[in-house]
Specification:
The complex is a heterodimer of chains A (441) and B (123). Chain A is of the alpha/beta class and 441 residues long. Chain A contains 11 helices and 27 strands. In chain A, strands 1, 2, 5, 6, 7, 8 and 19 form a 7-stranded mixed beta sheet that branches. Chain A has a 5-stranded parallel beta sheet with strand order 10-17-11-12-13. In chain A, strands 22-20-27-24-25 form a 5-stranded mixed beta sheet, with no helix packed on it. In chain A, α2 packs parallel to α4, α5 packs across α6 and α6 packs parallel to α7. In chain A, 49% of the residues are buried. Chain B contains 2 helices and 10 strands, in the order βββαββββαβββ.
């Protein structure tokens, strides 16, 4: 297949304009956009044996409605972008693990063919995605038997390897992957007994609750958690209990479920070990890099996009964001010739910088700062809320002046929200802060 | 008059749609933000359908499973029958995206098609 011919090109080259870490949806879209923006020196480094990332195991449909105006499955969506990367002749290396990214953008990676190698890049795009919160990070009491999987591990076993982890399933956490796996395991003949969610609301998309749980009569128990796991060799039962407002189990509410499988779908964490080691400033809220309007991190020339930046609900938004990161990386490289971009911070740019403030229900914003001179004509600011808000307003303040007040029937933590800022309203206006918050009226 | 509240699944927005019904007749649909919502709600209360996605065994390929989907939606109460037929199905590589794997899934008239490429492994 054409894949092999492309990826063997120029394996000895040690300098690229743009190195993209990760060949999932973010990396693929960033690469395609950078190439279309005129850059011919792009290399994608992917640790798996194929491009496409986690989409390859997400065989359910619902991807791509915004991007392609049709509903695709994960592998189909990935394939559209993999094809673009092939057609554009973008280089990539598979089975390649990036070990280190230095502050001056030297990428150290290794694979079986090249051994350990280094690439000096003018720009680096971080597109490593995220990973699931493991049991060790959840403080679940009880034994540690076999049969406990993250929902994504189970998804890979069922959809790619063709193995069923078990027949009687309890799911802790109502993240999207957990909901999708509740349906998937049910369709494959397992009995999914209950989905327990610690929070009083689900972290998953509404449509997944409808299609994956309600359709099959699987109960969703909000404000519940696992308080005991039984079984020495293999899991035999779990006990779940209701939790109070302090999220501690309420004595007397325990219910025991016999099961041979416990799936965990308790949140995703951007995978930023490489970013951290490089010295990229991370947000304590998102666990992803703090970025400006160009999706550039605290290290000039290092950009971030997709789930490594903040966990997205829709891959369409990942593709869109990643394309901007790719274009901005090309712009950054074009600007390198101009003296003021090298080295010391530009005081004029510092003076123009607008800080985005997330408060009153809004947990964070991406980006965190905006240089009105550098922003696109329209800039999408994405954010998530920390609670469920009904019939509330998303308000935007330029310093103390409220400039937007949008009514929403429902705003939930599981779904990403956005506001769009216009460059013409921000340039030369002397705005210091833009605040986004939720207001009751 | 009966009032039914649905979450639209036409797109990931998940609009809360309210349908007012009199027997099997839909009187009004509200809460949707696009036409899809109205079409979905009118259908969901009378004739619910779903796209079924799963995998089938594939022999001689570079992967052990081939992901598949029903080309269009099937009646919700036929999902189980469609799954039974999918689980009986074994195909031989190579198979490419869009290739028909089952022509008429469980008599629904809807074909099951491949959603990934699995290449043949020689030898």
């Amino acid at each position: 297949m054409m894949a092999d011919t492309v990826h063997t090109a120029e394996t000895t080259a040690r300098e690229y304009d743009i190195v993209i870490v990760g060949g999932g949806p973010a990396g693929l879209a960033a690469a395609a956009a950078a190439k279309r923006a005129g850059n011919d020196s792009i290399l994608i480094l992917e640790r798996d044996h194929e491009l496409g990332g986690i989409l390859n195991q997400c065989i359910h449909n619902g991807f791509g409605l915004h991007t392609f105006k049709e509903e695709l499955t994960g592998p189909e969506y990935a394939w559209r972008f993999i094809q673009q990367v092939y057609d554009l002749g973008i280089e990539y290396k598979l089975n390649t693990m990036v070990m280190d990214i230095s502050e001056d953008r030297v990428v150290t990676a290794m694979n079986r063919e090249d051994g350990m190698f280094q690439i000096r890049a003018k720009a680096v795009i971080l597109a490593m995605g995220c990973r699931e919160r493991p049991r060790g990070a959840l403080n679940i009491p009880g034994y540690r038997p076999a049969g406990i999987f993250s929902a994504g591990t189970a998804q890979r076993l069922v959809n790619m390897e063709g193995y069923m982890p078990g027949k009687e399933v309890v799911i802790l956490g109502s993240g999207d992957i957990g909901l999708i796996m509740a349906r998937r395991m049910t369709l494959e003949g397992a009995k999914v007994k209950v989905v327990a969610e610690l929070m009083p609301y689900s972290g998953g998309l509404k449509r997944n609750i409808v299609q994956c749980l309600d359709d099959f009569g699987i109960p969703l128990k909000l404000s519940h958690t696992v308080v005991d796991i039984e079984g020495k060799e293999h899991i035999t039962a779990v006990t779940i209990a209701e939790v109070g407002p302090d999220r501690r189990p309420v004595p007397g509410t325990e219910e025991r479920y016999t099961c041979d499988t416990l799936l965990l779908s308790c949140g995703l964490i951007p995978e930023n070990e490489l970013s951290k080691a490089a010295g990229v400033e991370l947000s304590p809220v998102t666990s992803g890099p703090v970025v400006n309007e160009s999706l550039e991190t605290s290290i000039p020339g290092v950009f971030a996009c997709g789930n490594v930046l903040h966990v997205h609900d829709l891959v369409d938004y990942v593709s869109e964001e990643a394309a901007r990161a790719g274009e901005n990386a090309v712009k950054y490289i074009q600007g390198l010739g101009e003296a003021q971009n090298e080295g010391a911070a530009d005081p004029a740019a510092e003076a123009r910088r607008i800080t985005l403030i997330a408060k009153q229900g809004v947990r964070y914003t991406v980006p965190s700062t905006i240089d009105p001179e550098k922003m696109d004509d329209l800039l999408t600011v994405r954010f998530r809320v920390g609670d469920v808000y009904k019939d509330s307003y998303v308000s935007v303040y330029f310093d103390d002046e409220r400039v937007s007040h949008m009514k929403k029937r429902i705003i939930a933590p599981g779904e990403m929200e956005q506001v769009i800022l216009q460059k013409s309203k921000l340039t030369g206006a002397g705005i210091r802060n833009i605040t986004i918050m939720i207001e009751k009226e | 008059m009966e009032k039914r509240e649905l979450t639209c699944i036409g797109c990931p927005m998940g609009c809360l749609v309210t349908v007012e019904m009199e027997g099997q007749e839909v009187l009004s649909v509200s809460g949707n933000t696009c036409k899809k919502g109205e079409i979905y709600a009118r259908k969901e209360v009378v004739d619910p359908t779903r796209i079924v996605t799963s995998t089938v065994r594939i022999e001689g390929g570079d992967k052990p499973r081939l992901s598949v989907k029903t080309k269009s939606d099937v009646p919700k109460n036929r999902i189980h029958d469609v799954m039974e037929e999918i689980n009986r199905c074994v195909v031989t590589a190579p198979v490419h995206i869009g290739d028909v794997v089952i022509e008429n899934a469980a008599g629904t008239g809807v074909p099951v098609i491949a959603t990934r490429n699995v290449e043949a492994v020689l030898g």
